[in-house]
Amino acid sequence: MNFLHSPKHRFLSPFTLFIQRRWKKPTVSAQTRLEDRVRDPHFDKLMAHLKRLYLVLEIHHLMSTRKRAPFVSLTLMSRWRNILELNVPVGSFLHKYPHVFHVFVHPFRRNTCCRVTKKMKELILLEGVVVRLQEMEAVKRVKKLLMMSVNGTLRLHALRMIRRELGLPEDFRDSILGKFSGDFKLVGLEVVELVDWDAELGLAEVEKWREREYTEKWLSEFETKFAFPIGFPTGFKIERGFRERLKNWQRLSYTKPYERKEVVRVRTCGGIERYEKRVVAVLHELLSLTVEKMVEVDQLVHFRRDLGIEVNVRELLLRHPGIFYISTKGKTLIVFLREAYRKGVLIEPNPVYEARRNMLDLVLLGCRKTRKLLVGDEAKEESNVVVCERNEEGERQGDWVIPFLENCEESRSP
Question: Which of 171, 226, 273, 327 is the most buried (most CB within 10 A)?
């Protein structure tokens, strides 16, 4: 085969030797923006920590499904490795978190077992109690979502997808929607409708920020009326003309989330920009309603039809890095509301966030401060040595067992 005509060196053939190859402009898509974005180490570190917490909670959920005993053998838990998508053996992962999992040898079967520690169980129960106590806040969040919707209705499937993010209990269909029938109406089995419009809730969170900027910093109403809080990460490159475009975008008017829905004329001057800015405002308000000011990007897709979002959500979030941040440290893409966090901590915490933060802090302890755990284990072993205790009358607990055993021995003897 000729060297010039080989497929590997086809560009050296006499037919293409003097042909000028046309340079192709690199495509800019949501994937390329995601790969080329400036990473924020605080959000990525927080997401890496939350990934451990979610894994611990998933193991607890699998263990709670076993009703036979409060513990599970490591032989059975080793089969969950593919379900949990662990890169290490399950036993090695459990030993990394002694404050969360107690690994012990069964006294009779002599096999290695695991159970959740008392401290972790208390924190998990505390989260459920706090969620129940915050039901009125949950009602407000659901009402505001319904007020943002196009027809005042939402699908229950979409609410189930972000149930934990909104701080709703597992049985929210009965405990929230069914209990507050004066606010919600169930249409069929999978649709909830808003009964009455609440004007007091028709104020977006960004409006409160604008009012503070106008009164405290003495900025003009023209600069703050349609503006959003912007904060870029360290290392963000500001190109030529970017500041001018950002200033014009901040001044651009749009239909606010709780205002009357108007038909946006795309062909008019700034029609597309106004429509996209309204979508940014809707996503900003949705993230503000969540407990931890974060949600999975894939879960936002389920609200596209109800909230009138007809654009690529991921691409829109990536075009506004000063408002949103997408982290790829978890199993899926997680979007954070940048203004709500400072160095990976929520600026204005709420009771549900604090309960979940306590669980995260316990997980992050790892193998540190385990001396108290060792002292507790020694106390348990000493307590197991005690056979009986005397009461005030001098009788011992368990004395009724001795005659019962003597009678059994007498009946066995010939």
Answer: 327
Q: Would you say the C-alpha torsion 384, 62, 330, 120 has a positive or negative sign?
A: negative
239: tokens are 């190109």
Q: Do 155 and 303 touch, CB atoms closer than 8 A? A: no
Q: How many residues does the chain have?
A: 414
Place of tokens 């129960």: 125
Q: Once rounded to an integer, what is the mean pLDDT over residues 16-39?
A: 64
Query: Taking the CB of residue 373, how many other CB atoms lie within 10 A of it?
Result: 15
- CA 233 – CA 109 distance, rounded (Å): 55
Residue at token pair 């800015």: 277
Residue whose token pair is 């969540």: 290
On whether the CB atoms of residues 366 and 56 are closer than 8 A, the answer is no
End-to-end CA distance of the chain: 103
Tokens of 397: 């607990």
Determine contact, residues 148/258, Cβ cutoff 8 Å: yes
The pLDDT tens digits of the residues spanning 123-163 come to 999 999 999 999 999 999 999 999 999 888 999 999 999 99
Does residue 64 contact residue 170 with C-beta atoms inside 8 Å? Answer: no
Residue 145 near residue 282 (C-beta atoms within 8 A): no
pLDDT tens profile 109-131 = 888 889 999 999 999 999 999 99
Burial class (CB in 10 A: 0-12, 13-18, 19+), 127: buried
Nearest to 142 by CA among 175, 184, 178, 179: 184
d(CA 301, CA 105): 47
Dist CA 322 CA 317 (whole Å): 10
